[in-house]
Specification:
Arc Repressor Mutant, subunit A; two-stranded parallel ribbon; 190 residues
Length: 190
């Protein structure tokens, strides 16, 4: 796992239906790679979040990053977009987090799984909380759609962009919630 906070990084900010998103990226082996995607948080501007975590980043973009940003915004507006993993620096995550994120990446649009099911799938039957923690620090939300992981009781759990955003993303994908805020599904992925 390479430390990413000491390399030259750039930031690209984009408006989305949920507010401003930020893509933090760097040049890696002569290609632009995403280090972090920051979603809007209630009460804190994305610009402030970027300055707090990547204060030395330089405002810049390139064709590849612009294309990624366009696809993320298209996804957030409801388009069926699947971003490839080769655009992110997955090697910046621990081995455990990589396993969790790769399992989540396989969950297709319109499906959900639970933290517990994902833990079992990766071979850690009692690891639901650890899976939830790995998602809480997912550096690549949207590319790795961690909004598709919920609690075993059908409630949403957490999400970096907040529960309103998680619910909206699931609803965009055709997932229904009941009046109590629980997912209405008969089958789960995994």
């Amino acid at each position: 796992m390479e430390k990413i906070d000491r390399i030259l990084s750039f930031r690209c900010l984009r408006k989305s239906p949920f507010g401003m998103i930020a893509i933090i990226w760097s040049d890696y082996r002569s290609h632009p790679k995403v280090l972090r995607i920051m979603l809007p948080k209630s009460g804190i501007s994305t610009g402030r979040l970027v300055k707090a975590s990547f204060h030395d980043s330089i405002s810049s973009s390139c064709d590849e990053i612009d294309g990624i940003a366009d696809k993320i915004v298209a996804f957030l507006t409801g388009n069926d977009i699947r971003l490839p993993l080769d655009i992110v620096r997955l090697d910046s995550c621990s081995d455990f987090q990589q396993k969790v994120l790769l399992a989540e990446y396989e969950i297709p649009r319109g499906c959900v799984s639970t933290y517990r099911r994902i833990a079992r799938h990766i071979g850690i039957p009692n690891g639901a909380r650890a899976v939830g923690s790995a998602f809480a620090t997912n550096p690549f939300p949207i590319v790795i759609p961690c909004h598709r992981a919920i609690r075993s009781d059908g409630t949403l759990g957490g999400y970096q962009g907040g529960l309103q955003m998680k619910r909206a993303l699931l609803e965009i994908e055709g997932i229904h919630l009941d009046a109590r805020g629980r997912i209405v599904l008969k089958e789960f992925f995994y």
